[in-house]
Amino acid sequence: MPVPSHSLSPRDGANEIPAVRLAAQRALAARLRLVEEYPQWEIWRQQARTIKSEVISHLDEYLDRLRSQVEAWGGRVLRAADGPAACALIMDLVRRHRVRRLVKAKSMTSEEVGINAALTAAGCQVTETDLGEFIVQLAGHPPAHLTAPAMHLNREDIADLFVRHLHLPRQSDPAALSRQGAEHLRPRFWEAQMGLTGVNFAAAASGHLVMLENEGNLRLTATAPPVHVALMGMEKIIPALTDLEVFLRLLPASATGQRLTAYVNFIHGLKWHPQGQQAFYLIVLDNGRSRLAADPFFREALYCLRCGACLNICPIFQLGGGHLYGRVYTGPIGILLGEYLGERADLTDLCTQCGACSQICPAGIDLTEKINLLRSRSRSHPGLRAAVRGGSLLLQHPRLYRCLIPLGRLLGRSLPRRITARWWGGHQSPPQPTRRSFFESRPPGPRI
Ligand code: SF4
């Protein structure tokens, strides 16, 4: 299937804002309705943190245990130090198994390593089979959200894409669009020589791999082709299947307000096909996770379940959408991961410090506090940061501020207007100091 490669057009940008806000608010409302029915919610959050903390503290041990268990049931486990290494491993498997068509499902990690570009460059036909991922593939956009990749597109946009790329009759009813997508995708599973999926949880004690979905496409991607490759970040390990329940409670509720996803797939063994036994490979990706695990303050970012709730509640995400961040992982958690996973990105200014993300996170990650610390260490925009620090210092010392008012007034009058206007941003006039100071003009109230 030809995949268009154009980037976001201005029209897409204009459409994105209301569609994202609407979808985020619907997901939040559904989450809230369900969480209110769960008196044990805080206990589950605490249990999830304890389990994740144990795994991240002993990652190598759990990885070794997982490897021996998966190899015991016939899979092969490969480790990738970074994105290019993961792509090289997958391309090697593609060549070895003579893969020309590949189906994919539910793998943000594959977006993180950028495998689609490598596969397409090698002449391999790649089809995303999760409906949301298929839609953004047709549009040529990166996913806009961790669990809702096409969140920025409304039903009219999707109808346009199906008419333009699949030459199907125009439908704008969501159920009809889903049917059209499913009918188009169904034959791709049987034509593919390889299926590539993500992993939600990997139980080290037994080697079970657990994958959640709502459409059944991941199940077909993992079982129909003769080769299955599962790609996961090393933080997806849990000690044992007995630890899974708490995550099954927290993740679907936080993501979509569901008690449980429609499908919970357990992979533990090789399938038999008419052509012979299926081959299975588990690729475990580091790509900065070891460095993050070694940082005592930021390692909590590896507790993340990728539910997307912190994106939904973030005012910056609601306003600007996922593409604003220019990274695979967006929203508050994307700001933290951007500092560690792959090429470093300083996104700390995309945070208002409102604190909502820390309150909603099912893994109890204090995102706000950690983003604040990252921001204090940031080296980008040094002039602006020095000015903000200076301004903050000044506003904490009313006497000093009052002493500097005459100097500010003098500067405002004596410097040419074009210079002060340029400093101020070039499109508005600089503020003129008033006779009353900032402190005197504040309404009376308690000191904060
Ligand atoms: S940081 Fe928390 S709220 Fe955000 S995606 Fe991860 S688990 Fe969900």
What's the CATH superfamily of the largest domain, by name? NagB/RpiA/CoA transferase-like
pLDDT averaged over residues: 89
Strand content: 5-15%
**Helix residue percentage:** 40-55%
Poorly predicted spans: 1-14, 442-448
Computed structural class: alpha/beta
Instruction: Give the termini separation.
Output: 59 Å
What radius of gyration results from the CA coordinates?
25 Å
At CATH's second level, what is the architecture of the largest domain?
Answer: 3-Layer(aba) Sandwich
Task: Throw out a few tags for this protein.
single chain; 448 residues; alpha/beta; Rossmann fold; 3 domains; 4-stranded mixed beta sheet; 12 strands; disordered C terminus; binds iron/sulfur cluster
Question: TL;DR?
Answer:
It is built from 21 helices and twelve strands. It has helices spanning 10-35, 41-57, 59-72, 83-96, 108-113, 115-121, 131-139, 155-166, 174-191, 217-223, 244-256, 289-293, 309-313, 315-320, 331-338, 356-360, 367-377, 382-395, 398-414, 417-423, 438-441; strands spanning 76-80, 101-105, 125-128, 194-197, 201-203, 208-213, 227-233, 237-238, 263-267, 272-273, 276-277, 279-285.
Can you describe what's shown?
With 448 residues, the chain is α/β, with parallel strands linked by helices. It is 50% helix and 12% strand. The protein has 21 helices and twelve strands. The strands form three sheets. It has a six-stranded parallel sheet with strand order 1-12-7-4-2-3, sandwiched between helices. It has a four-stranded mixed sheet with strand order 8-5-6-9. Helix 1 packs across helix 11, helix 2 (41-57) packs across helix 11 (244-256) and helix 15 (331-338) packs across helix 17. The model is unreliable at 1-14 and 442-448 (pLDDT under 50). Iron/sulfur cluster (SF4) binds at residues 146, 254, 304-310, 333, 360-363, 365, 367.
